[in-house]
Amino acid sequence: MSKIKETSTNYANKQALTGECLEVYAANIIGGQWALAICSWLMNGKLRFGELKKHLPNITERMLTLQLRKLEADKIVKRTIYAEVPPRVEYELTSIGYELRTIINELEKWGVKHKNLVELKQPRLCHDEMTVQG
Fold this sequence. Notes:
Elements: H1 9-20, H2 22-30, H3 35-42, E1 47-48, H4 49-55, H5 61-73, E2 77-82, E3 88-93, H6 95-98, H7 100-121, H8 127-130
Antiparallel strand pairs: 1-3, 2-3
């Protein structure tokens, strides 16, 4: 996750848009490639880092750490450290994080509809159309 230079036009535009449009503000918080997936798994309850990693096998440990830190900073995820040896750390959604449940469920429904729509528009060749007529 690279940072945008604060002196760039892109940064200024992003700040202006997020200040004016609450939908964009919300999308910036949960709109990362992994943020929604992490929140989806945490909707079922607390998980440890290793458990999250198993549910998201394609994410690197570094990216999972960065995403969890960002979600924690944005008050979406709560991190609890238990004084044990070795220390046990659990992640769970905060109360405002749990409010994402209906949003995530609706995004899933919309995703299914859109994926079906897009797939219907893709030309499909029947076996007969692929055969060269002689």
